[in-house]
Amino acid sequence: MEKTVSSTDRPARFIDVHVLQSVPFANLNRDDTDSVKTVQYGNAQRTRVSSQSWKRAAREKFQEEIGERALRTRRIGERVTRELLEERGWPEPLAQRAGAHVAAGSSIKFELAKDKPKEKDAADGGAAKKDTKAVVPNKVLTNALVYVPETAVRELADIAEQHREKLESAKDIKKSSDKSVLPQATIDGVLRARNGVINLFGRMLAEVDDAGVDGAVQVAHAMTTHETDVEFDYFSAVDDVNQQWDDATGSGHMGHGQYSAGTFYRFATIDLEELAGNIGNDAASVRELTGAFLATFVESLPGAKKNSTAPYTAPGLIHLAVRADRPLSFAAAFEKPVRSTRGEGFEAPSVARLTEYAEQANKMLGSHRLLASGWVSIGHDDAKNLGVRYDGITDLVKATLRSALGEKTGEVSA
């Protein structure tokens, strides 16, 4: 049944995003040994992509979409130094000192970066020894990652400009106990700044009072709907000179990598109430940020080993659901691994499994909690339990936003 939904009568709280996507031979997200990440679920090994990895890919695409960027770094002082050098013409020693005083001037503790060790001849003809790493004056690293709008670099450089005379007579930062001559409260104020990226994805910065932001987006680890094996790929690199001169045999380099393939279930949800609170109940901004995230999350893809795999597939199914009270992941639909019994692959039976589970879960929890739902797909016509079918992701996102934000135009399915 199709109808419009009033947010006054049935207020929306969450928008859930469900994606089924088949990815060929790839390693989207490696662990510390370059191995494919996996998880045991339903007593079966699945290929996994961490939420952090997919969230970063989504954030990078989201930033391009809205035209705002956020900067996450421990090297904020060096960024200020570069701004003063390249954009404002400061002499290099003074710019380096200013950047160090900016980094040392906040509430965040800091340390000095250390130089790379150098080979040094031992005295009296002894064996060569390596120097221990020595700190580099004015090269300051904050102990915590600073996460600020990109525009904060200019604002911090402005603070240095305003206190240039103090900096000219100040001492270099040479140890972690040195004090900055710049005002801490002013620097902390810049570090509290937000933009759309931070308001949506959140920020952890406990060292600066009131700088933390609870993220409005929650992203699950993606995993395959079926059991997978990890494949080892042996490779070699040809030495071109050997080949041209034909005077030596063997490769120039040999190695191996790990890969897998499969159909992934991906899930994310947006807390509209949290987002509205982060940006001060600005309805236009809520709409813009939510729409941009919905569109960019479904199209995002982590970039590990992209040059050797180019795994740029489109999702086979995208399902958006507007809910009144709580998010609802369909990951449990795949606790029993999907099997391909007729040589049909895994995507088609995964779609069937998801739609069946969605119908039963919504019935059990109460259909009144589901305010609207819709879907788009490639090659799947049997997802009627997921609401209204749309021709493309743009139409699906627009209809979902109209329902979630209580707009009166357009048709949605409850």
From TrEMBL:
Region (Disordered): 111-130
Highest taxon of the lineage: Bacteria
Family annotation (NCBIfam families): casC_Cse4
Protein name per UniProt: Type I-E CRISPR-associated protein Cas7/Cse4/CasC
Provenance organism: Streptomyces chisholmiae
Lineage, uppermost ranks: Bacteria, Bacillati, Actinomycetota, Actinomycetes, Kitasatosporales
Gene transcribed to yield this protein: cas7e
